[in-house]
Amino acid sequence: MESLEPLFEKCLSLAGPGRHVELVYSEAEERLSRFANNGIQQNLATENASLRLLLGEDGRLGAASSNRLGDEGLKHMVETARAAARNSAPVDMMPELRSSCDTPDHRNLDAATADHSPEHKAAALAQVFERARGAKLQASGILATARSRRALANSAGLRCQGQHSLARFSTTFETPRGSGWSSATCHRVADLDTQALAAQAEDIALRAQDPGNVEAGRWTVVLPPAAVIDFLQFLGWMALGARSVLDGTGAFSGKAGEQVFGENITLREDAAHPLIAGCPWDWEGVSRRSLALIEKGVFRQPVYDLQTAREAGAESTGNALPRPNGYGPMPAHLVLEPGEESLQELVAGTEKGLFVTQFHYTNIQNARELELTGMTRDGVFLIENGRITKPVRNLRYTVSLFDLFRKVDGISREQKLQAALGGGGCLAPGLRVRDFNFSSVSSF
Amino acid sequence: MIDLCRQALNAAQLAGADYADARGVQARRQGLEMRNGALGSLYDNEDEGLGIRVLAGAAWGFAATSRLDRDSLAACARQAVAIARASASVNREQVRLAPEPGWRDFWQTPVARDPFSVPLEQKLALLQACDDELRRDPRVKVALGSLRCVRERITLCSSEGLAIEQLLVRSGAGIHATASDGRRSQTRSYPMSHGGQWTGQGWELVEGLRLEENAPRVAEEAIALLSAEPCPKGRLDVVLKPGQLVLQIHESVGHATELDRVLGFEANYAGTSFATTEKLGSFRYGSPLVNLVADGTLPGGLATRGYDDDGVRQQRWHIVREGVLSGYMTNRELAHAIDEEGSRGCNRAETWGDIPITRINNLSLMPGTSSFEELVEGIDDGLVMDTNRSWSIDQRRLNFQFGCEIGWRVKKGKVTGLVRDPNYQSMTPDFWASCDGIAGPEEWELVGVANCGKGQPGQTSHMTHGSSPARFRNLQVGIK
After folding, report:
1. Of the candidates A40, A68, A117, which has its C-beta nearest B48's C-beta?
2. ipTM of the predicted structure?
3. Could you count the other beta carbons within 10 Å of the beta carbon of residue B91?
4. What average pLDDT does chain B have?
5. Which residues constitute the domain of residue A112?
6. Do the chains contact at A64 and B45, CB–CB below 8 Å?
7. What is the domain-level CATH number for residue B211?
8. Residues A413-440 pLDDT 10s
9. Does residue A171 contact residue A141 with C-beta atoms inside 8 Å?
10. pTM score, two decimals?
């Protein structure tokens, strides 16, 4: 792996001595086979590397970025940032620079994943297509592998880099009369059992054919981890970054220490969780802390970057995005504490309810109220007397997460990871929720 | 770049490609955002690279690189062919492309003033002036203004003799204010939500928007919404203004008529469509008033260009004619599925590193003969809604629910007051069938959608939708 030091030194030299300089290097290679109708429809390999510069000069800031990393490209990038700085308004104070980080060389990179070829993918997918044809179903989805390298450098001496790999498989098996789905993400392609996942999608699809009528209204629902992840990610974006809390516009503004969810809900930001194994530092080079954001239903704190921490009189939690940005810090490694029951036991303990495979097109209806709407997808099943009995049509939900997380009466011990390239992830168990509001029904 | 494309094509053909195209893109994207008087975001990005798409064994392979030296391009081309062969090893269906002339042309977005030539100082001064206006009342907690522009030089060559260069320019601008009283938060945007208005224009877009003049109204409306009545629940008649109706067009017609979705290519991700091909020419999509026209030549449109990334010249055609499904968004690979001889030119990629996929073109609801006032006068009990806030639709594009930033109550043909958090839900054919009035061409507006996500890996695309205000009867509103 080529050292980045010459690149960083060149940029620092071009920027000139005594300047405030922040550099973010990003490099990625992805290989992705996309399939539909039991054939590969798109098949790609792509590579890119780019550098982002934040330059402070005379109390002003300018930014530029480029993937032209030769001498001419770098020179132009520095000139662009310098021109932007000259034209900018003065800032109150320069952003804080860290001079070192605790883990300067982080590696969660699997060579076999980085080298996984189109031929490997085609061989795995041939079996998936064979399974689908055998069941008279159409398979679609992706099988993807990627590697990334991210590095930070600044004029205060900070140098750190992280390398990651990611493997993803997602598949839908369907007929026009119903569909099933499964997916997994992990850091090593060897951990991705594509055939077991395909079998799971096939099983759901076959059970989901010809769904029956169902009434909208309040239902007890059993949500597997994939459905719960959807809610956690929106919760993070909407409400758990410090910016909206400090502005007074967020759902948790002024609610530190308040019981906002049920006592059985503990949500942590935890890059160090062994299943996530995320990058141990953020885009400002600050070490990521493991901390409870919601503890036994009580809102403890949002996540901070250096700027919002300064405003709040708190410490950065290591959740900065590249600066400058208008979003502020964001959680990127949410972990909802698991329970002790199995998903099967959650179903068995349900007299009448619905089992949802996953949600689709979730979107924010009212961020202040944590109100979301979205659809079910790829298999909704009626639960009667503790057993899944038959498929029903897809429903639209309109729920407030305040309401939802106060009505959780069962949490599974099974967890699922949704990992992101570069080290982010979300880890969730399944949930059983009372009085979940389905506001309308679709026709299939 | 054209020489680099030709080198890549040559390497692909030497490696055994039956068809190849090479698309080189040099892009510059600049954006700045002011948030409560401080620089919220600032970027000025240069990006270049080349993507090579090949057919070998009648299957696709694609490889892309930012390394633009001869050896790297040759390796990239060979990789694309190897990938295509891997695809062919498991595929039973063979790709065949609709015929298209090997155009040789140059096309560029007509621009009155290059947005990159406007000094950053001037842009920041405009945003600062807007910020000052937006935050005069302390109940406004967040004031945001943004200015963005993009320039892409796209070079496309193919083994069929295609050689096209296009210089595309887009600009975007907008402001918004979020007010809070400690209990509620309400946001108003101008001229659109989700980052403002985007068009295929230069700085003249920004000059025409009069952001600073509109800022006081935006702040006042955000504050007024804090104490407005909540959206009533039930079935009411609704007039949708273009700030909402354009997204309705986008989600329930645009995506539903992308032929790749219809044929199952997006089944695992964005979904499929209820508007299946046997319905073409006969399915009643909406009332006879409803005419929806796709137009890749629309002046100022975000999708407007000379040619798509298949090298197909841009066109104008009906998607829905007098309420009946009449066409699809197509590309060269899929046109044969609806027995059309040529593509409609809807294949676009976000960057050089992305495979072109079927995209919504500019798509507009044609104006009617009514007016906003007449539409409102025809309502006994109902609502007016404007400016999209939230959107969600099922994976076959049937059941949808939209929320808007602002609503107004209508009683006996008169607007009676503000309504907060308005939303509505329906099924696509029922919704368009309930359209019984569309305002005329003098109220027709274009709105750009710059955040349309699709594909795996995800790609963001952009297109413009036009509409006048329109009335829809008996919609479910106030969904909680």
Report:
1. A68
2. 0.95
3. 25
4. 97
5. 5-204
6. yes
7. 3.30.2290.10
8. 999 999 988 888 999 999 999 999 999 9
9. yes
10. 0.96
